Amino acid sequence: MLESLGELEKVTEEVDLRYVSARVAASPKALWFERVRGYEMGIVSGILGSRERLAACLDCDQREIGRAFLHKLQNRCAPVMVRTGPVKEVIKIGDEVDLTALPVPLISQLDGGPYITSAIGIARDAEYGRNVGAYRLMIRNERETSIDLVSASDLKLFYERAFKEGKSLPFAVAIGTHPALLMAAAHMAPAGQDEFELAGGLAGAPINLVKCETIDLEVPADAELVLEGELLPTGWTEDEGRFGDFTGFVGPLKWNPIFRVNAITHRRDAIFYALHMPDEVDYLVAPPLEGSGWQALANAGVTATAVYAPQAAGCNFNLYASIRKRPGEGKNAVLALLPLKRVKHVVVTDEDVDIFDPADLERAIAYRVRPAQDIIVVPGARGSHLDPSVQLQVTKGALAPLTAKWGLDATIPEGADLAEYETIRYPFRENCSDMASPVAAAGIDLAEQIAAYLDAPKHFAEVLAHFGATSQRDIVRAWGELRKAKRLGREQRTGRYVLQNTAI
Questions:
Q1: Residue 289 in contact with residue 345, Cβ under 8 Å?
Q2: Alpha helix locations (H) across 342-485?
Q3: How many of the other CB atoms lie within 10 Å of CB of 483?
Q4: What superfamily in CATH does domain 300-416 come from?
Q5: How confident is the model at residue 493 (pLDDT cuts 50, 70, 90)?
């Protein structure tokens, strides 16, 4: 699909893996490297690197990805078990496993090593059942990776339970899946909700699953590649990071568990998906967050007209919404949006503001916000350890990042004179020759014709348009005659001209 849209470029010459990430970062399109020196697999990267590409996946306009996400989730469907699938074409177990054979690029200059970034992790818990999430994996050696389990997640809960019992946690990773699976995994759905079912709704068809070879878990049958193994009961003891995260900043060194890989299955012609940081992760989480914004506003009884999570803030920390406001709903909307996920900064505007246009949003903040009345600050709220302003020291223990959240009611204040918010529009941007009247008839004064036209209040531009076949200089002279005769009055609120008497 991306190729047909002109959004994918095939790189046919052989490339060195070292240069892949920099080339993806510089490309306006997704890149498919067909030949990577020293590796049997090719690489694709950047496939979700813009709102337009993500919108193609959801079959909608890029401004509607949040609403499309919500709509598709209403039609979720259970996954289907199949006997086999393309991911089973090649099977390697035990000593045949070699993670260094995978073309995993170094993405960021300060990363601790090559990172698998497109990993969809699958685990199961006796109480909550199956969980699917998105995790990063740093290659350590031929059989092991680190996995980041510092932040709160279902997988962290599952692992803590197994760790307390001194047991490994069976774990599988799918690489190269439909973006619907990536979005469902990144959605942070409530514990106990099957993300494969959510992905079926997003994809518009059930997800086909196959049994793993060495553990009791199910994985996507049409993935490019699957890693099977266990999270070892070593706890948070091994170095992991640094890593260039979705924030655009390089995170700190952490201490995390180990994923030991005991089997690899893949397609015969597998392509390794190197999800590019930070843009692909940012755009990936935009639909779930924007969808949550639409839902939160609806729950608050507020009619939204647009919701936008900007990529510059990782599609996580800033959230903008425009609403069809009734009195007081600007602040109600702010309060409805602030509790969402990692959101730290909310701006709510009127529906006439294009929140996707930074200049339009800046104007709303500049001219509609009264700081003493319209800024809401909530101290001591849940934050994210990935926000460097939190300044939370990363240790081997649990993290409890707290921050302040703040919101701007950038809607026009109640009771304001709306005439003062009429924006500049330039006259005659379109050809108005069809609005022109003939040149003034012989013997009839132009000033009198203008006076007759002012049978209802008019702006000066309307006069110029109506007498389009007459030069503006002649119109201004006739206008001056009306002024001298004190024939012209004004509407106080709109500034339109009215006729004050009937004779010159």
A1: no
A2: 358-368, 371-374, 446-453, 460-466, 472-484
A3: 11
A4: UbiD C-terminal domain-like (3.40.1670.10)
A5: confident
Backbone angles phi, psi at 129, to 5 degrees: 80, -150
Compute the distance between CA of residue 470 and CA of residue 437 in angstroms, rounded to an integer: 8
pLDDT at 442: 47
The tokens of 373 are what? 């009345």
Question: For the chain, how far is it from start to end, CA to CA, in angstroms?
Answer: 71
- Segment 55-90, tens digit of pLDDT: 999 999 999 999 999 999 888 899 999 999 999 999
Per-domain residue ranges of the chain: 60-269, 300-416, 433-499
Instruction: Give the domain 433-499 fold.
Output: Arc Repressor Mutant, subunit A (1.10.10)
Interval 132-153: pLDDT, tens: 999 999 999 999 999 999 887 8
Superfamily of domain 60-269: Electron Transport, Fmn-binding Protein; Chain A (2.30.110.10)
3-state DSSP: the chain helix, strand, coil percent, rounded to 5?
30, 25, 45
Instruction: Give the global pTM.
Output: 0.82
297 contacts: CB under 8 Å, gap ≥ 6: 303, 304, 307, 321, 323, 333, 336, 337
